[in-house]
Design goal:
The complex is a heterodimer of chains A (about 110) and B (about 110). Chain A has strands at about 5, 10-15, 20-25, 35-40, 45-50, 55-60, 60-65, 70-75, 85-90, 95, 100, 105-110. Chain A is mostly beta strands and about 110 residues long. In chain A, strands 1-3-8-7-6 form a 5-stranded antiparallel sheet, with no helix packed on it. In chain A, a hairpin with a 2-residue loop joins strand 6 (about 55-60) and strand 7. Chain A is globular and about 45 Å long. The termini of chain A are far apart. Chain B has about 110 residues and is mostly beta strands. Chain B is globular. The chains are: A mainly beta (about 110), B mainly beta (about 110).
Chain lengths: ~110, ~110
């Protein structure tokens, strides 16, 4: 069974601070590394994703870093805002498994005003 | 992003009854549909995967006769929870995928079985 370990389980940061969430995986066949954002009572939504041919991708305040040798990727939220308070999931995917996402346990982020 | 709808968004039913949840991809054709279940404070758990016109493939531990999935068209899939029990109370989320890499998620359906 695929193993995806996400940390921390919960995170509290002050407004304007940097939020960092990590994801470690075991399956070296994963070829798509997304982060999803989920608000209470809603379905997840893609936040940012990276493929293994690059080591970093930035979209606005959100950056995803990928370390292939360490089998880890992380989400960095710069200038964190109270509206970023949500649960974040990493969910790497292996194309040969029929594009099945393997969800991490989730990180509940709280950004205090 | 793509538009995905689920209906109903919230349903309460009595134990022993059946509930049908609809998932529609409004602006793209979903060749593959994933159905997830999420308990409070937990991650998403894949229940089954279906391709349009084919029988669904269920994950280990998911009863196929209890959770009936129909994916008869490229824009509509349904999940029917048969003979629902309180332990089936959960948040059910559909996730259609078209021909491209992206997999989208519906807004979810909150099922409460009393």
């Amino acid at each position: 069974q695929q193993q995806v370990k996400q940390s921390p389980q919960s995170l509290i940061v002050q407004k304007g601070g940097i939020s960092i969430i990590n994801c470690a995986y075991e399956n070296t066949a994963f070829d798509y590394f997304p982060w999803y954002q989920q608000f209470p009572g809603k379905g997840p939504a893609l936040l940012i994703a990276i493929r293994p041919d690059v080591s970093e991708k930035k979209e606005g305040r959100f950056t995803i870093s990928f370390n292939k040798s360490a089998k880890q990727f992380s989400l960095h939220i710069m200038d964190s805002q109270p509206g970023d308070s949500a649960t974040y999931f990493c969910a790497p995917r292996e194309e040969t498994s029929g594009s099945r996402l393997t969800f991490g346990e989730g990180t509940q982020l709280t950004v205090n005003p | 992003g793509a538009v995905v709808s689920q209906h109903p968004s919230w349903v309460i039913c009595k134990s022993g009854t059946s509930v049908k949840i609809e998932c529609r991809s409004l602006d793209f054709q979903a060749t593959t549909m994933f159905w997830y279940r999420q308990f409070p404070k937990q991650s998403l758990m894949l229940m089954a995967t279906s391709n349009e016109g084919s029988k669904a493939t269920y994950e280990q531990g998911v009863e196929k006769d209890k959770f009936l999935i129909n994916h008869a068209s490229l824009t509509l899939s349904t999940l029917t929870v048969t003979s629902a029990h309180p332990e089936d109370s959960s948040f059910y989320i559909c996730s259609p995928r078209g021909g491209a890499a992206e997999q989208y998620f519906g807004p979810g359906t909150r099922l409460t079985v009393t």
